[in-house]
Specification:
The structure is a single chain. Helices cover 17% and strands 37% of the residues. It has helices spanning 9-13, 62-78, 145-149, and strands spanning 4-7, 27-32, 36-42, 89-98, 107-118, 121-130, 133-143. The protein is an alpha+beta fold and 161 residues long. It has three helices and seven strands.
Length: 161
């Protein structure tokens, strides 16, 4: 499959369901559908969460960092044509690490690798860096419920004789 490059906010939203106020990725630089994705988020003081986290020392909350990583990861499989725009849901987060505080003015550059995608279940690893240093990282499993439904065992019905 061909590489997809330089997707802005409107383009990204054609592939995934995230919208304001939880749509965070500013740009997807490159996607190899079914393999990898690269993108970034520019953090500015105007973000809705900075004044509350914390007014005297603003930094990006962990859940915002996880959501940024997730939105780049989603592009690794939602860019496969038959999955474009489908709803997704978390299955698991593992080995989540936060190494560097992200503050207003930082640019979080993220790289996602799709390690496995079977029966609507995507597994992979995502790393976010600020100024070339790892800031956050996670391994995750994300499901496409509509696809997974087709693989559920059928319920047996008791026959009355």
């Amino acid at each position: 499959m061909d590489k997809i490059t330089n997707l802005g906010a409107y383009d990204i939203q054609q592939y995934q369901q995230n919208r304001y106020p939880v749509f965070f990725v500013d740009r997807i630089l490159e996607v190899v559908p079914g393999k990898s994705a690269k993108g970034y988020k520019n953090f500015t003081y105007n973000e809705w969460f900075f004044p509350a986290h914390f007014h005297n020392e603003p930094n990006a909350p962990g859940f915002i960092q996880i959501e940024c990583l997730t939105q780049v990861f989603l592009m690794t499989f939602l860019t496969i044509p038959e999955y474009k725009g489908m709803k997704t849901g978390f299955v698991s987060l593992k080995n989540v690490r936060f190494w560097k505080k992200i503050v207003p003015g930082d640019r979080l550059e993220m790289e996602a690798e799709l390690q496995s995608f079977k029966r609507g279940l995507a597994k992979g690893k995502i790393t976010g860096c600020v100024d070339g240093e790892i800031a956050c990282q996670a391994e995750m499993e994300i499901a496409i419920p509509e696809v997974m439904k087709a693989f559920r065992p059928r319920q047996r019905t008791n026959r009355q004789e």
